[in-house]
Amino acid sequence: MIALLTGTMRHKSPEHVIIEANGVGYSVDIPLSSYYGLPEEGQATLYIHTHVREDTLRLYGFLTLAEKETFILLIGISGIGPKAALNILSHMSCADLHQALFNEDVARLTTVPGIGKKTAERLILELHEKIRKLATAKNSLSKEQEPLTPALRDSSADALSALISLGYKEKQARGVLEKMHIDAHTSTQEILKQALQHLTR
User: Fold this and answer.
1) Is 19 exposed, middle or buried (0-12, 13-18, 19+ CB in 10 A)?
2) Which residues contact 97 (CB under 8 A, 6 or more apart)?
3) Core-most of 36, 70, 103, 144, by most CB within 10 Å?
């Protein structure tokens, strides 16, 4: 199963690309978010989801691992196929989508073409808890991240990791957290909720 593809860009369109690797051209369906980040020519790398059904095998490619993981979550919902999942990711960034699901924001989700109120409610029902767990999980910070200031420890460190996993830049997330009033009794959940409010202002 193909999980990552690196090769030469041979064709690029908003819906799919052809990447040549070792003499083989791979047709890969992509969301618009990946389209805008890919070069017109030269080397390109995509995270790949290999979608296999009885009568078909298609490759779906993404610039980031977060996009791929979100795509897999979406197609796991009844009634949401790969085409619908790509449509959602083409109109909302991973960070915006995760935030809408986390906040149970039906209105935000229905701004995506083809997503009605019932579908938005189903997305929230099935993914809210998964997004909440993702957002509050204790993710280890990478070695490249700067040491935490005194204001960013314990629950704050967990919130920082969660914001990064939701798609926000470390510098942006760190800046918001350092401006917040956080004490030892503030939970990760509350810190994350307040940080998201600041980030969407």
Assistant:
1) buried
2) 70, 88, 89
3) 70
Which residue bears the tokens 């915006």?
A: 96
Q: Which of 31, 57, 56, 55 minimizes the C-alpha distance to 46?
A: 31
State the Cα–Cα distance between residues 42 and 38, nearest whole angstrom: 10
- pLDDT tens track for 32-82: 988 888 888 899 999 999 998 877 889 999 988 888 989 999 999 888 999
For the chain, domains (ranges, CATH) are 4-62 (2.40.50.140), 65-131 (1.10.150.20), 137-201 (no CATH)
Cα–Cα dist 148/80, whole Å:
40
Residues of the chain with pLDDT under 50: 138-148, 150-153
